[in-house]
Amino acid sequence: MKFIIDHIFIVSIVVLSGGALLWPALQPRGKRASSLQVTQLINRGKTVLVDVRTAEEFALGHLRDAKNIPLADLSSRIAELDKAKSKTVIVVCQTGARADKAIKILEGAGFTDVFSLDGGQTAWQAAGLPIAK
Questions:
Q1: Cβ(71)–Cβ(101) under 8 Å?
Q2: Please, which contacts does 1-6 make with residues 24 or more away whose CB atoms are closer than 8 Å?
Q3: 46-83 burial by CB neighbour count: b if 16+ within 10 A, else e?
Q4: For the chain, what is the HEC assignment?
Q5: How buried is residue 13: exposed, middle or buried, by Cβ count under 10 Å (0-12/13-18/19+)?
Q6: Alpha-carbon span 47 to 55, nearest angstrom
Q7: Does residue 51 contact residue 66 with C-beta atoms inside 8 Å?
Q8: Annotated active-site positions, please?
Q9: Are strands 67-68 and 88-92 parallel, antiparallel or unpaired?
Q10: Residues 96, 97, 102, 105: is their CA dihedral positive or negative?
């Protein structure tokens, strides 16, 4: 106890830096699936891929059979996905950040089986998996 009191500045720095490291892990995120898990889900069928990147990003390369609905348009175009409510929906973006926002929108619209590609298109390409152009 005397050590903590004598070195309160150092102890507070350690506690704050530890908290800063844990903060991202404690943030609520949607369900994520690795590239391998997404591949398995696609191979099983009954899967819909939704790419929430911009049309320009989508044109540079995307997962095969992915439907491009930019995140900014997702709320207004969600009716296009109504037939997919009984299927597994996999949301893809460049790194995974936009996909988490899209999952919240889809779950709010009644979709129950929704995943985001962990690491997004970047992780998919880094794994050497095929893309369509």
A1: yes
A2: none
A3: ebbbbbbbbeebbeeebbeebbbbbbeebeeebeebee
A4: CHHHHHCHHHHHHHHHHHHHHHHHHHCCCCCEECHHHHHHHHHHCCEEEEECCCHHHHHHCECCCCEECCHHHHHHHHHHHHHHCCCEEEEECCCCHHHHHHHHHHHHCCCCCEEEECCHHHHHHHCCCCCEC
A5: exposed
A6: 21
A7: yes
A8: 93
A9: unpaired
A10: positive
- In the chain, the percentage of residues whose pLDDT exceeds 70 is 95
Residue 82 phi, psi dihedral angles, 5° rounding: -55, -35
> What are the pLDDT digits (tens) for 42-86?
998 889 999 999 999 999 999 999 999 999 999 999 999 988 888
Alpha-carbon distance 6 to 15, whole Å?
15
